[in-house]
Amino acid sequence: MVRISGEGEKILPEMKELSEEWADILFSNFSDEEKETALEVLKKMALNVSSHMREKDQE
């Protein structure tokens, strides 16, 4: 299990704000439907990576 350190906790609000700013930039010319589709594709990609990593750990 991974846990965030005390120092990491201190910068969480700033990281959240930066993340939201980047999301606004990345999706600025997307329709709501395009944004939803892109997020679903990214979620699938993340699941693929997670599954791959679990399989490699079991080897």
Give a short overview.
The protein is an all-alpha fold and 59 residues long. It is built from two helices and no strands.
Please outline the helices and strands.
Elements: H1 6-26, H2 32-58
Which of globular, elongated, flat, extended, rod-shaped describes the shape?
flat
**Residue fraction in strands:** under 5%
Q: State the secondary-structure class.
A: mainly alpha
| H-E order | HH
**How many domains, in number, for the residues?**
1
What does this structure look like?
This protein has one domain (6-58). Helices cover 81% and strands 0% of the residues. It contains two helices and no strands. The chain has helices at residues 6-26, 32-58.
Key traits:
single chain; 59 residues; mainly alpha; 0% strand; flat
